[in-house]
Amino acid sequence: MEWRDRRESSNVEDRRGVKAAGVVGGGGILIAIIYALLSGDPSALINQVQNQRQGQPAAQTAQDDDSARFVKVVLADTEDVWSKVFADRGQTYTNPKLVLFTDQIQSGCGVAGSAVGPFYCPADQKVYLDLGFFREMASNLGAKGDFAQAYVVAHEVGHHVQHLLGITSQRSNRGQTEANRESVKIELQADCLAGIWAKDTNQVNHSLEPGDVEEALNAASAVGDDRLQKASRGYVVPDSFTHGSSAQRVASFTKGFQTGDLANCDVSTQLDANR
To answer: Could you tell me where the DSSP H helices lie in the chain?
Structure first.
């Protein structure tokens, strides 16, 4: 992805190295990675992360600083794309803040740790990201490349778009299986919105390089519930999916990228994709 020497968003809070006290909680696009990395026991991973890192100073590397600049450019691109999309609809887009943190952070949704992956908090309208997650994504999930990382940021910003449109507030309080199905719809729609961002930002900035779309599709496939459950449990339980299968996630991103049309990301239709 061509990103250097381009506008960087000013809506980034760099809180790397700032320690937060409390119990890790929260959620996000790759919360299922917990199961993949530690045999299906999220509490064990959270405890391990807290015990290993308690009191350790956070070291910032040149690679992390470069990644931070990259994230700022991607966030700037999302600002440009969604501001235009909302304006075309006669609406105003409010830019979210993106918070860079190390290990754990106090968010408007509570204290959250890097173990849960990047996440969006509607209470404070902020995206939270530990840059170390990009290394975990590449080494443990095989999702490599800068555009795979851009997809993650764009997905979380997609949740902000949903929040502004009032989509996430429409969720019901039914049983767990139905709640999981609704969660899958929301996550797949965020993938579709990430696809719209990819298409629109490339039309303006000509930023995509050969292999970039494949990187995003590989990342989407890598974080499918079926693939993560198979790796951690050895079997798949579709009723427990919260983010969608690999095929669904790839199909949703592809739909957004090919059409660039918000109407084609209707949340009510997301489960139909490669069901």
So the answer is: 33-37, 42-53, 62-88, 132-141, 146-164, 176-205, 212-222, 225-233, 246-259
- Please write the tens of the pLDDT for every residue from 100-131: 999 889 999 999 888 888 999 999 999 999 99
Record the tokens describing residue 66, joined without a space: 């470069």
Other beta carbons within 10 Å of 172: 8
Q: What are the 10-residue block averages of pLDDT along the chain, 275 residues in total?
A: 93 85 41 39 42 45 84 97 96 97 91 88 96 90 92 96 86 75 93 97 93 92 85 85 90 95 78 44
| Residue 7: alpha-carbon gap to chain centroid | 21
d(CA 267, CA 64): 35
The helix or strand, by DSSP H or E, that contains position 121, with its residue range, turns out to be: strand 119-121
Let me know: does 194 contact 158? Beta carbons within 8 Å: yes
Residues near 241 by Cβ (< 8 Å), separated by ≥ 6? Answer: 180, 184, 225, 226
Distances (CA, A) of 149 to 6, 11, 136: 17, 18, 11
Length of the chain: 275
25 secondary structure, DSSP code: B
- Residues ≥6 apart with Cβ < 8 Å to 24: 46, 49, 50, 104, 111, 112, 113, 115, 116
Q: Are 147 and 213 in contact (CB under 8 A)?
A: yes
Q: Tell me the C-alpha distance between 68 and 239, whole Å.
A: 37
